[in-house]
Every structure is written in C-alpha cells, then in structure tokens.
Amino acid sequence: MEFKASQLKIYFICGTQDIPEQKSIKTVLTQALEAGITMFQFREKGENALKDNEKEKLAKELQSLCQSYHVPFIVNDDVSLAKKINADGIHVGQDDEDVKAFANDFQDKIIGLSVGNISEYETSDLTNVDYIGVGPMFNTPSKSDASEPVGPEMIKQLRRRIGAFPMVAIGGITEENVKSIADANADGISIISAISRSQNIDNTVNEFKKYFN
N or C terminus: fewer CB in 10 A for the chain? Predict the structure, then answer.
C-alpha cells in the first residue's frame, strides 16, 4: 500500500489488553473505522497478550475489517507476523528489530519508527522509514514502559530538523489536549485508550478530526 502522510491523521493503536472487559476488540475497531480513523496498528502486548495461532487469527480478522474500510493495517513490532499475513506495514521501536534487517521485505509496505527525542532522532537511520511516531506527549496509562513525557515541544524541535518528514504524536492524547498537538504541526495523532475506552467512539473520533481534517 502506498503511504501518504494523511493516513496518520487519526491513527488508532490497540490490542486486547486495551479493551474494557465488557467489549470486544472487533466491536471497538469496527466503531472506530465507522467513525473515520485513518490507520490502525495491531499492538498485542503484556502478560495476557495473545500469542502464536491465537494472535495470528485475531490479526487476520482485524486486518480483514480494515481492508473493508480501505484503512492501512499495521503490525506493531512482530515482523514475522506482518510478513506472514501480508500486513500493510510494520511499526518498530528503538529497542525492537533494526529496520535495516527487514527493510528489503517491506519495500512496498509502510514502515514506522518510534523516536522519543532529539538524540534518538540523531542516531536513527530513516532511509527506509515512512514516518516516525513521537512521544510520549503526555503521561499515558496504556504503556507501562513509557518514557517521561516530551510534550508537543518535541514535535516543534523535530520539525525544525526534519522538515516535512511525516510525524505522528503519541502518548496520553485526549480531546482536552489534542489542540496543542495540532498547533505543534504534527501530521496526526496516535490514540490508544482515548478511543478504546471511549463511551462514544464516534463522538471521540469526530472531536479529534476537527483538528486533523
């Protein structure tokens, strides 16, 4: 799938660990797709995360949902799964597999890389990378291993160095603080709990879309 920066506008990230007990991830994703998310990342992490065949089965089901809405389906970290199911792309962090190691297998795919600060940017090879995910913007309950928040100011600092290179903000973003991200000139926002735990996903997504239309 051809990558466009506009696909980063409302980028939903989710795994089973992010879903309230009374809901299913398929229901939540369907509602998010109906509301107008522009990209989805399957991020299955934590002690009770699905593994092996169960993880692959769910990934395929969520991938099929995304395909029906023509929304890119990205796999977090798991390069072998992304290749096996022919996902639209892969997103890796600084401590995950090096992009160079799998870039040849993803030449026609979307590759995202997490960049938390200036020093990580300066040591990152973006040759094969389509976009960077910058954060955490604010304190976040969704990632137990998250670093200290860098705030929207980091978007501004990286923008001065990176120009128009596609950049999506992540971490603790809510309807209340999203304006500061848009004002910092990010291409979009990555959302986990603000969507997965929303009481009205349609309203939440539409509120975000006001700032990234």
Answer: C
Q: Would you call 43 a catalytic residue per the annotation?
A: yes
Whether 180 is catalytic: no
For 53-86, the pLDDT digits (tens) are 999 999 999 999 999 999 999 999 999 999 999 9
The pLDDT tens digits of the residues spanning 113-167 come to 999 999 999 999 999 999 999 999 998 765 555 578 999 999 999 999 999 999 9
Q: How far apart, in whole angstroms, are the C-alpha atoms of residue 38 and residue 69?
A: 9
Cα distance between residue 133 and residue 122, in whole Å: 15
Report pTM: 0.96
Query: Looking at 9, 55, 109, 143, which residue is catalytic?
Result: 143
Catalytic site includes residue 6: no
| Residues making up the binding site for Mg(2+) | 77, 96
Residue matched to tokens 């992010």: 18
